[in-house]
TrEMBL record:
Name used for this protein in its record: Apiosidase-like catalytic domain-containing protein
Pfam families: Apiosidase (PF13204)
PANTHER family in the cross-refs: ENDOGLUCANASE, LMO1036 PROTEIN
Residues of the Apiosidase-like catalytic domain: 2-91
Top-level taxon of origin: Bacteria
Transmembrane segments: none
Organism name: Candidatus Desantisbacteria bacterium CG_4_10_14_0_8_um_filter_48_22
Cross-referenced InterPro entries: Apiosidase-like_cat_dom
């Protein structure tokens, strides 16, 4: 599956960069082979001097010029996400919702998403900053290092080695007990890479 069209950034004065990130990560970590991005203002080729105007139903979708629309924050942030994924053999990723608790469902699409390559890499996208998700089912005998990827600015912050419990489960040591929270109130990506 290639996601060829999602809601355009800025359409209806909504669907801003945080929605674009959620759409991207939910798509890629659920097994799609690709994801496209669009911005309101680009698709109808608005110009500063001549917006597209009303669609056949009589309503305009907006007047943002393409020269401004292509520079909306989500565009750059999805570029950072692509660059981040290129550190992995992302085409080998498999969806693994059982690798994270809680995990997204149709009823709760804002719970974390997980995918990766068993024994090599795991990527967990956490759309909400409250509560650090538990990474589950880590393989016996495989040593991982962990870090956070900030999907807003592309910064990577080392978390350190993964010390799973006897069940292979691990909660990243973020925040202060008893508050397990992400560093900043936004979405985050936790990733694990095998130590070779």
């Amino acid at each position: 599956v290639l996601v060829g069209e999602v809601c355009y950034e800025g359409i209806g004065e909504a669907c801003r960069q945080e929605v674009q990130r959620l759409m991207f990560w939910a798509s890629v970590l659920n097994g799609s082979c690709g994801h496209t991005y669009g911005a309101n203002g680009v698709w109808q080729v608005n110009t500063k001097g001549k917006p597209y105007g009303p669609s056949p139903h009589g309503m305009s979708y907006g007047n943002v010029a393409w020269e401004d629309a292509y520079q909306l924050p989500g565009s750059g942030q999805l570029g950072l996400a692509k660059k981040f994924l290129e550190r992995f053999e992302w085409w080998r990723f498999e969806p693994h919702p059982e690798w994270v608790k809680p995990a997204w469902t149709k009823e709760n699409p804002c719970a974390p998403y997980a995918a990766g390559i068993p024994g090599e890499a795991r990527v967990v996208y956490s759309p909400l900053p409250w509560g650090v998700p538990e990474v589950r089912g880590l393989e016996i005998g495989v040593r991982y290092k962990s870090a956070l990827f900030n999907p807003v600015n592309g910064e990577i912050t080392d978390i350190g080695p993964v010390n799973a419990d006897e069940n292979g489960d691990w909660v990243p040591p973020l925040g202060n007990d008893p508050w397990r929270v992400m560093p900043v109130f936004q979405d985050w990506v936790i990733f694990l890479e095998r130590i070779r």
